[in-house]
Amino acid sequence: MKISKKTDYALRALFAIAEPSRKGTISIRELSENIDISRRFLENIMLEMNKAGWVKSITGRNGGYELARNANSITLGEVIRHFEGMVAMISCVSVYNYEPCSQEGKCYFRRVFLNIRNLTVQILDKTTIASCFSFQPISKDDIFKEEFIGGLGI
């Protein structure tokens, strides 16, 4: 599964707003600069996230954005599903975007993709915005560890 830029930017914005050291609201200008996204594109994403109930806009001199819900109650799964529509890698194992396949009755690899979907959903649905702040950022070395080199293109 690969997420779109829009989902990536939405997650960046949520994490910037939820940053534990942040006090008060963050302006759209500051948010845009902070997470390296064009202001125009970010404004559309923020409108969508406002409608979804994750953020709220505060008007006035010290206005900007803040979380509308606690960071412990917003999961990566709900954000990704909102912007992507599905988590499954192939549509024949998707719950919401299921598309039948002529090979379903005799497909031997479909089970693997169903397992991947189930494990991915379990992780994404139990991982909240707040819980991610306990992780250490990964380095390039983490990505290219020797045990994963054989899986080119992961």
TrEMBL record:
UniProt keyword annotation of tRNA processing present: no
Entry annotated with the keyword Cytoplasm: no
Keyword annotations: DNA-binding
One Pfam family recorded for the sequence: Rrf2
Name of this chain's protein: Rrf2 family transcriptional regulator
Species for this entry: Aliarcobacter cibarius
